[in-house]
């Protein structure tokens, strides 16, 4: 029997790329709209009255004034860093050595890994994030724990074993061969199972030897339908270190490129201090850049060139980078993206921010045929946003003259209290129905 459900509220569906058309014309807003779901997939988005007439006998969830959106897509996170989020006072390399590596060491214990993975999904779902691409640790058990927690909840998720064979402490290094073997067997176990996908994951050039990068490049060539995620040009000191390690390389990107790690499906986290050749090569290769604004301000990395990179036609996703990032919330992440762009003289429109956190990230993950938009055929991972979730937001929202003014205070000041309800593949997983205001 067909499982059908109708969710009513305000709806917002992107019909165009908001960096390529005037942003306010990039989406269709329906004041009294509805989303019809059939067997976990969106069947229709239209006026509530039209869909009620079309489907008179379905379960109706009336979300009142709430804004129905696709669930947020976090295109770069480190779930094992959940417990060390908001650790004080360090920049990238010191931060890794002081906080991150000791915590990641603990993920050889499957019980600990499962504990953190379950907590991570509970937290991110309650913040409205329905898809995450996460790094794990060097331990295969950390990948198993993540995928099992995702599978239990039915969410679409991407992850990979983080590979490191140099410049990391004892107990947190693999080898070129074991990185290849472990990644391959995890990939064969999980890639394409339910809603799960594997991403080949060298942490970054400073912690992966050329042999390891070559082994992972070979693995990717054998499984080109997998994603590949790594870090690129996040901090100036890191780039100088890469140049010391590889004086022969043309630039940082070249250290990946010469091992077959630049191509469609590559996702480069941060990508702040790029050389012109790197920008041109990334665009030509149709690889993705992942903007992690709360991390870039928190660790002091720099200001991502959203405007310039979008003008070049780059594929760009948005991400928390938990726990280098200082929040689990994609709302907070959008606010930080707005602030970072302002510091570069560019005011991102609310349509652009919402697009980055949904359709843009889906496109960066090359999953825009499955997630990230409210339209028929897309999996029904949805959220209902309360646009008056706190007194401060509510008083600002009362002045709004259109949907963009109504949603912007929630983008800038909202948190998990704004996320009223979350559906994964059409099933409610957290939250309640309409709130009275
Ligand atoms: N570069 C290499 N590893 C990491 C990490 O875990 N977090 C961040 N922000 N940058 C990195
Ligand atoms: Zn990262």
List keywords for this structure.
globular, binds zinc ion, Urease, subunit C, domain 1, 437 residues, seven-stranded mixed beta sheet, 2 domains, binds guanine, alpha/beta, TIM Barrel, 16 strands, 38% helix
Bound molecules: guanine, zinc ion
How many domains? The number is 2
Helical percentage: 25-40%
Q: If you compute it from the alpha carbons, what radius of gyration comes out, rounded to the nearest whole angstrom?
A: 21 Å
Largest sheet: 9 strands, parallel
Which regions have little confidence, pLDDT < 50, spanning 5+ residues? Answer: none
Quickly count the helices.
Answer: 15
**Morphology:** globular
* CATH level 4 superfamily of the largest domain: Metal-dependent hydrolases
Kindly report the oligomeric state of this protein: single chain
Please outline what is shown here.
The protein has 437 residues and is an alpha/beta fold. Helices cover 38% and strands 24% of the residues.
Explain what this protein looks like in three dimensions.
The protein is of the alpha/beta class and 437 residues long. It has two domains: 132 residues, Urease, subunit C, domain 1 (Roll); 293 residues, Alpha-Beta Barrel (TIM Barrel). Strands 5, 6, 7, 8, 9, 10, 11, 12 and 13 form a nine-stranded parallel beta sheet that branches. It has a seven-stranded mixed beta sheet with strand order 3-2-1-4-14-15-16. Helix 4 links the parallel strand 6 and strand 7. Helix 5 packs parallel to helix 6, helix 12 crosses helix 15 and helix 13 crosses helix 15. Zinc ion binds next to strand 5.
């Amino acid at each position: 029997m067909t499982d059908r459900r109708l969710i009513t509220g305000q709806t917002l569906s992107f019909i165009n790329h908001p960096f390529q058309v005037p942003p306010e014309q990039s989406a269709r807003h329906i004041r009294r709209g509805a989303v019809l779901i059939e067997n976990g997939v969106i069947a229709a988005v239209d006026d509530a009255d039209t869909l009620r007439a079309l489907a008179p006998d379905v379960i109706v969830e009336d979300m009142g004034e709430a804004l129905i959106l696709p669930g947020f897509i976090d295109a770069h996170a480190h779930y094992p860093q959940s417990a060390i989020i908001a650790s004080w006072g360090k920049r990238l390399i010191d931060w890794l050595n002081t906080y991150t590596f000791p915590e990641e060491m603990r993920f050889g214990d499957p019980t600990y890994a499962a504990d953190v993975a379950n907590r991570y999904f509970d937290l991110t779902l309650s913040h409205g994030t329905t898809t995450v691409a996460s790094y794990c640790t060097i331990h295969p058990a950390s990948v198993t724990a993540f995928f099992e927690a995702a599978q239990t909840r039915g969410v679409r998720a991407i992850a990979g074993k983080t590979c490191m064979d140099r410049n990391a402490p004892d107990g947190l290094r693999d080898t070129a061969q074991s990185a290849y073997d472990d990644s391959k067997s995890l990939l064969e176990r999980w890639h394409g199972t339910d809603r799960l996908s594997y991403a080949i994951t060298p942490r970054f050039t400073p912690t992966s030897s050329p042999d390891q990068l070559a082994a992972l490049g070979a693995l990717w060539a054998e499984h080109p339908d997998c994603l590949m995620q790594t870090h690129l040009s996040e901090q100036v000191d890191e780039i100088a270190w890469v140049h010391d390690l590889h004086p022969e390389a043309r630039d940082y990107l070249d250290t990946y490129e010469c091992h077959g790690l630049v191509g469609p499906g590559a996702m480069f986290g941060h990508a702040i201090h790029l050389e012109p050749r790197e920008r041109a090569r990334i665009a030509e290769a149709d690889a993705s850049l992942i903007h992690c604004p709360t991390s870039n301000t928190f660790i002091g990395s720099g200001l991502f060139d959203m405007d310039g990179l979008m003008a070049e036609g780059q594929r760009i996703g948005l991400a928390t980078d938990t726990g280098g990032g200082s929040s689990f919330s994609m709302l907070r992440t959008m606010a930080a993206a707005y602030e970072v762009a302002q510091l570069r003289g560019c005011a991102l429109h609310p349509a652009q921010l919402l697009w980055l956190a949904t359709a843009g990230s889906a496109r960066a993950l090359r999953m825009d045929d499955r997630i990230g938009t409210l339209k028929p055929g897309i999996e029904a991972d949805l959220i209902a946003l309360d646009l008056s979730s706190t007194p401060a937001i509510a008083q600002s929202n009362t002045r709004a003259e259109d949907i963009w003014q109504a949603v912007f205070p929630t983008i800038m000041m909202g948190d998990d209290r704004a996320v009223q309800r979350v559906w994964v593949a059409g099933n409610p997983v957290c939250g309640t129905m309409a709130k009275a205001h």
